[in-house]
Amino acid sequence: MDLHVVEPARDRRVRRTRASVLRAAFDLVTARGTTAITLSEIAEAADVSRRVVYQHFGDLDTVLLESGLDLARRELLPCVAELRQPVDPRPEILAMARHFAEHKVFYRALLTGSCAYALDRGLISLLLPVNRQGVEHVYGDRLSAQAADDLAAFITGGAGSFVTAWVIDGARDPEAFTDRLIAVMSVLMEMS
């Protein structure tokens, strides 16, 4: 499976078809709580042919991966960007936790399925710039560009692992999870 993030299509019909397929995958995975679905089921739910699904995505894992990344792009990133509070990270972290709690069934299925690694990498690539900005805000010019990149990658990967464990095994309470994540991040920031 190719781990790169697919660029959104430019043609309106292609975008509609892709959106329909991604929504159908989301709906099926959420309804069943598993990624044990077929491309034929996705095609039928999207009202397109299997051939169209193959042409746009190639295989089931890519459809599932793109469905997860599409959801994060459409709902998570705008929400986090709108709430960007450099002084207080709580609103941003709570928005992220609420997003994952709201779509827990879907993300849990993906994060325990065959596209888990690719989804983890894709989510990290989407959230890394947000964390890079946070590192720049906290440390300013006290860190080299490489050190800032490394710290942002460390925080993003660690937080991603923490979120994954919570989505798979944890309770649904985004408030409590937000408090836990902020406590861990506070310890990390104090260590510097």
Describe what you observe in this structure.
This protein has 192 residues and is mainly alpha-helical. It folds into 2 domains: 12-61, Orthogonal Bundle (Arc Repressor Mutant, subunit A); 69-190, Orthogonal Bundle (Tetracycline Repressor, domain 2), CATH 1.10.357. Helices cover 77% and strands 0% of the residues. The chain has helices spanning 12-32, 39-46, 50-57, 60-82, 90-102, 104-111, 116-139, 145-169, 174-190. It starts with 11 loop residues before the first helix and ends with a helix. The relative contact order is 0.11. Residues 1-5 have low confidence and may be disordered.
Comma- or semicolon-separated keywords:
192 residues; mainly alpha; Arc Repressor Mutant, subunit A; Tetracycline Repressor, domain 2; 2 domains; 9 helices; disordered N terminus
Largest sheet: none
Distance between the termini: 38 Å
CATH fold name of the largest domain, please? Tetracycline Repressor, domain 2
| Beta-strand content estimate | under 5%
Q: Measured on Cα atoms, how large is the radius of gyration?
A: 18 Å
- Helix count equals 9
Please count the beta strands (DSSP E, at least 2 residues each): 0
CATH architectural arrangement of the largest domain? Orthogonal Bundle
Averaging pLDDT over every residue, what do you get?
A: 88
Low-pLDDT ranges? 1-5
In sequence order, what are the helices and strands, one letter per element? HHHHHHHHH
CATH secondary-structure class of the largest domain? Mainly Alpha
